[in-house]
Amino acid sequence: MPVRITPALLRSALYVGILFALPTAARSQTAMTPAHTFTLSGDRFLFDGKPYQVISGEMHYPRVPRAYWRDRFRKARAMGLNTITTYVFWNAHEPRPGVYDFSGQNDIAAYIREAQQEGLNVILRPGPYVCAEWELGGYPSWLLKDRSLVLRSDDPKYIAAMQGWFTRLGKEIAPLLLRNGGPILAVQVENEYGSFGDNHAYMETVKTAIQQSGMAADVLYTADGADEVPKGSLPELPAVINFGTGDAQRSFAKLASLRPDGPRMSGEYWAGWFDHWGEKHHETDGAREAAELEWMLRKGYSVSMYMFHGGTSFGWMNGANSNGKNYEPDTTSYDYDAPLDEQGTPRQKFYAFRDAIARATGHQAPALPAATPLRAFPVGPHLESASLWRNLSKPVDSKTLLTMEDLDQSYGYVLYRTGLDEGDGGELVLNGLHDYAQVYIDQKLVGTLDRRLGTSHLTLPVMKRAATLDILVENSGRVNFTSVIRGERKGLTGKVTIGGKEPESWKIYSLPLTDLSKLRFLREPCQGPCFYRTQLDAPVVADTYLDTSDLHKGDVWINQVALGRFWSIGPQYTLFVPGPWLNKGRNEIVFFDLMGTSADVLKSTATRTFGATIAQRD
Predict the structure, then answer these.
(1) Of the residues 118, 268, 292, 328, which is catalytic?
(2) Is there a catalytic annotation at residue 192?
(3) 173, 297, 371, 550: least buried by Cβ within 10 Å?
(4) Residue 427 catalytic?
(5) One domain for residues 206 and 296
(6) Are residues 280 and 183 part of one domain?
(7) How many helices (H) and strands (E) does the chain have?
(8) 391-440 tens-digit pLDDT
(9) What is the residue range of 110's domain?
(10) Under 8 Å CB-to-CB from 202, ≥6 apart: which residues?
């Protein structure tokens, strides 16, 4: 039987160097990196047979510009971390069935190697479901095209898709396991499954798929809230627990009662929180969190804080919450009030955590790297515009409504068009609106409906002559939590009635907004759903923010890269623009505003802005 390691023994032997016995940058870059072991002994971890305490922080490779990965890793070391934890995002890597992308921003193997080169080990969380306030919890939307496929279940079609994904991912991950000379200590099986269900046979299937893919690290584990451990865990695997500020003592006591001999680790210690559109920006008590972190470390427990650096859900990758009734889409910013802010600058919480780690471990962290430059740049007036109405693609003619998934579309908008005859009118009802719709008669706005507010109907005037009805629907972000994910198709997912009658035919326009090159820009005013083109002049390359406070609702691109969403309801009023995505000199900005006017102004600023929502300002 292994000797039980007390906290006192752990500190006296551990903190003289064993705790931070990590693969160094020099060693990781050699041709033959020595293999290591990571094992369990009672309620502790052992690295190469010696006591090891995981001090980790979560950071997601798609949310951090690739050029900044190394900077963020160095800042992790400078806070006292020895490990980085990351999810793997299936929808980023397999955008279409059997089509894989591990290049550029999606090069997860490069991300893991860079972590190792900076002296960090890695904990991998490949899902397949990840939550993460990420679009559909990381699932690719094409899984929803087959309405008989059941996500996150033992449905054979879902299992086959998961196994195919894991097999391909395993080719990237297997060489990076600790025993193969890489930095991956442990791999999580599924993710907080106890908050979703209790199908242990399904969990066993996920575990087997990970093992067969070659991704099985020396330690496989599950993660749940302490109260959900019985439902989400597997008896043969260690269980770690997730919780927020103030819940450490209760959660660890609960874990000890459920797993007397298992490791003591917080898989997610929530060091902040995320934001929904139309709600307040979250800030949490950093001093209280630092004290709780120190308490855990002095107990000898392992910890992974969620998030160390949140970053940005660039493009359309934000998720949403829903319990089946309400709908709460997340903002583009994933700042999370984390120790590093969205731009990578340490906030006061960073220093409080660094001091707490140093006190608990007796280890002084390395110095911080230089600050990343942040500047404001001149942005020209938008002299060119392109009306959505003049830039529609060829429609699909259909007797029935089609969702985005039916159209092989993941993100963006869908325009549903039908005819109105003389005498038509009355109540327009959109059953299954996912998520936000603007309704037009002959291209004039007559109303807005919003799943977030639970609105689904409005009154149309009685037509004095034939007219065209357009319903422009936005995917505001697929739900990433609860069983709602299983039906989270986008567009008009139910029936549409006008005065109690269903239209007999539709023209349906797919608007994924993935290619802006075909837009026909003109030097003339544009009002309504419009694209605007302008330029930003950067005499030097540096980070900046785009101030969207004078815009309404839409999306922004810089040099044809989608930055994310803006919405006047707040709380986010700036979009992060990474310096490496800028050119020295001229940079093209395009923004799409659903309610655009000639008064729309976009500015560059060196100040991140989270403000009061419209309700708060009123």
Answers:
(1) 268
(2) yes
(3) 371
(4) no
(5) yes
(6) yes
(7) 12, 32
(8) 999 999 999 999 999 999 999 999 999 999 999 999 999 999 999 999 99
(9) 7-317+325-361
(10) 152, 153, 154, 193
Question: Domain ends where: 478, 511, 544?
Answer: 511
The pLDDT tens digits of the residues spanning 29-75 come to 334 467 899 999 999 999 999 999 999 999 999 999 999 999 999 99
- Which pLDDT tens digit goes with each residue over 143-191? 999 999 999 999 999 999 999 999 999 999 999 999 999 999 999 999 9
Which tokens is 385 given?
Answer: 């515009």
Identity at 176, one-letter amino acid code: L
DSSP string for residues in 243-284: EETT-HHHHHHHHHHH-TTS--EEEEEE-S---BTTSPPP--
Answer whether the bond into residue 307 is a cis peptide, omega within 30°.
Answer: yes
Q: What is the pLDDT of residues 587-610, one digit of tens each?
A: 999 999 999 998 899 999 999 989
How far is residue 558's CA from residue 173's CA, in Å, rounded to a whole number? 32
**Together in a domain, 484 and 598:** no
- In this structure, is the dihedral angle defined by the CA atoms of residues 224, 226, 232 and 235, taken in order, positive or negative? positive
328 φ, ψ (degrees, to nearest 5): -130, 95
| Residue given tokens 């242990």 in the structure block | 200
Sign, CA torsion 372/376/380/386: positive
DSSP code, position 18: I
Q: Which two tokens stand for residue 337?
A: 């009030």
What would the pLDDT profile of 477-495 be if each residue is shown by its tens digit?
999 999 999 999 999 999 9
Select which of 192, 228, 384, 405 is catalytic.
192
Q: What share of the chain is helix, strand, coil (3-state, %, to 5)?
A: 25, 30, 45
